[in-house]
Amino acid sequence: MRNYLWFYNSDEHRELAALSAASVDAADPHANRILVDLRQHLILSQAPLMVANVWLLWDVLARLAPGDELVAIDTDVLVRRPLDMLGQADMAVTFRHNVSDTDEGREIAQAMPYNFGVLALRACAPGWEVALWMREQ
Fold first, then answer.
1. What is the model's pTM?
2. Closest to 130 (Cα-Cα) out of 91, 80, 77, 76
3. Cα angle, residue 18 at apex, residues 41 and 13 outer, rounded to 5°
4. DSSP SS3 for 118
């Protein structure tokens, strides 16, 4: 089973997550949606969004049935077709050539070519290890 995951920490991000989730409903109607309000997590509600995301990623992945897929998506991503990213793999990330058509955007992409704004993990030992590794960083 494919599960799509969004984290948000404000009403604005909740609205964006809802738009992204609606795009998943249209593109991948048999998938599950998981929207997590970080404000409901007392300790993590004070953490930067990127930190809270990786801490809760493990928690969500650990609750899935073995073999299920988890696709974590930034709230500003619209889905046009099912994100069948894993195939036989246990982890997949997206690659970016630029962040924006500016020198700064290209420098960011060079420093961080892998975009964790769309990340897929399988609920299995290697997938759990990846989520733990990310959390510990």
1. 0.83
2. 91
3. 55
4. strand
